[in-house]
Amino acid sequence: xxxxxxxxxxxxxxxxxxxxxxxxxxxxxxxxxxxxxxxxxxxxxxxxxxxxxxxxxxxxxxxxxxxxxxxxxxxxxxxxxxxxxxxxxxxxxxxxxxxxxxxxxxxxxxxxxxxxxxxxxxxxxxxxxxxxxxxxxxxxxxxxxxxxxxxxxxxxxxxxxxxxxxxxxxxxxxxxxxxxxxxxxxxxxxxxxxxxxxxxxxxxxxxxxxxxx
Length: 213
Ligand code: TYD
Description:
The protein is α/β, with parallel strands linked by helices. The chain is built from 8 helices and 5 strands. Helix 2 (44-55) packs antiparallel against helix 3 (60-84), helix 3 (60-84) packs parallel to helix 5 (110-120) and helix 4 packs across helix 7. The structure holds thymidine-5'-diphosphate.
C-alpha cells in the first residue's frame, strides 16, 4: 500500500477536530494503519516548540522559523517514516497554516516562507525539486465572524485564538490563495453546514479520489 498524507486546515473555530477523528476511524475500518498527528507538534521536540509558539510573544520571523523547525523534526521523526511504511498520516494543520497565519495573519514575507518550505520539506533521494506536501488538504472554509462566535466562551484562548476578527480575515484569504496556487491537492469544505453535512463533504472528497469506498 502507498502511504497517504492528508492535512486539515482552517481558521480557529472552523470545526476540524471531530472530523479528523472520524476520518482516522474510517481508514482504520478499511484495515489501514493511521498515524494521527498535528502541527506545530507531533514529536517531543516539536511539541515543546508548539508550547512556545502558542504562548510566547515573538516577532513574525522567529515564529516562522520555529514552526518550520518543528515541521522539520516532525517530518524526519514521524511523517516520512510512517509514509514509507505505507500508513495513512492524518495531520491537523501543515505548511498551509504557516502561509495563512505567519504569511497572511502576521504579514511575513511569503517568498521567504516558500524558501523555507523548499528546504524543510525536501526529501533525501527524491531530487532537489521535490517538496513533501499532503496528497489532500481539507480546507474548512468558514467566515471569520462565525468562527469567532463559535470560539467565544469555549475555552481560554491561546495567542492566536485571542486575535481580532481582521487577523482571521487575512488568514482565511491566505488559505484561499493557497488553494488557488495548489488546486489539485485542495478540497474546500463548506464548514458552516451541519456537522453531518460537513462529514459528508469530507468523505466525498476522499471517495472521489478513490481513497475511501
Ligand atoms: P490548533 O491546530 O487550532 O489546535 P487547538 O485546537 O489545540 O487550538 O492550534 C494551532 C495554532 O497554531 C492555530 O492557531 C494556528 C497556529 N499555527 C500557526 O500559526 N502556524 C503554523 O504553521 C501552524 C501549523 C499552526
